[in-house]
Amino acid sequence: MALSGEQWTIGYSGREAVIASVGGGLRSFSVDGRSYVDAYEDDELAPGWAGHVLAPWPGRLADGEYSFDDERHKLPWNEPANRVALHGLVGWLRWRAVDVSDSSVTVECDLSPQPGYPFQLVLRTRWSVGPYGLRAVHTASNVGTRSCPLGLGVHPYLMLPNSPLDKWRLRVPAKKQLLTDERKLPSGETQAAFTEATAIGDTVLDTTFGDLERDSDGIARLELSNEDDSESVVVWVDDSFGWLHLYTGDQLDGERRRRSLAVEPMSCPPDALRSGTGLVTLSPFDAWSGTWGITPRHG
């Protein structure tokens, strides 16, 4: 089997996405052959967590330590340089398909209780393509006997065909962005940049944006466009996702460096298991859900 596991290709009228079982996430997305996600090969480890679902927390957790219900928990570091536990526990697990059609696939993953996270979750994502582009509906269900803390994010890398990242114009629908310390952990906040469409240029982003501004339908929409506005893509999130993390890929290797922009919908900011900001507490047999999507435009 390929390194990224089993593959499911879904399509609708020229729109095509490939979902990989390892990480339960998005390996590619294109419209009429034009790629809007920086894809990776099926027999390749997803570079930089590309497309993976991040749960039960997204981002960095300082020292891998947190308290919940007056109980102290410690998780192993998987980014030892910063002494943090990064991006949860399901990003490298195999997910299974529970429903497949031509235009959608629903994948599911069991997260068993373990040291550092002694809670039991079932995670499910329905990926679909249609006239709207691509849509993902995530559900996390507490199937254990005790309440548990939850955060969820997703890690797609967005592209605009035949256009370099430094020429892209970016608008982020946010009022604030988080400042970070030398370990890339939240240390404060400031007024958000890119509130108007602005060229990315040589800006380095590994930045979490919050206090999202929403349209009348309750949706927040981030917009990317090329220099002459002939190509654009919107990443939209419902109100279950209160944060967007943007990463210009400066630490990625080779040709992937600064080739795409990670736009990560997140239900909470980094270090939320410690701070409690945006963190969901799921009672036994309770569930959380959130929806986001990608809508491209060409011409």
From TrEMBL:
GO terms for molecular function: carbohydrate binding; isomerase activity. GO terms for biological process: carbohydrate metabolic process. It holds the Pfam family Aldose_epim. It comes from the Bacteria. Transmembrane segments: none annotated. CDD domains: Aldose_epim_Ec_YihR (cd09022). SUPFAM superfamilies: Galactose mutarotase-like. This is Aldose 1-epimerase. It comes from Stackebrandtia nassauensis (strain DSM 44728 / CIP 108903 / NRRL B-16338 / NBRC 102104 / LLR-40K-21).
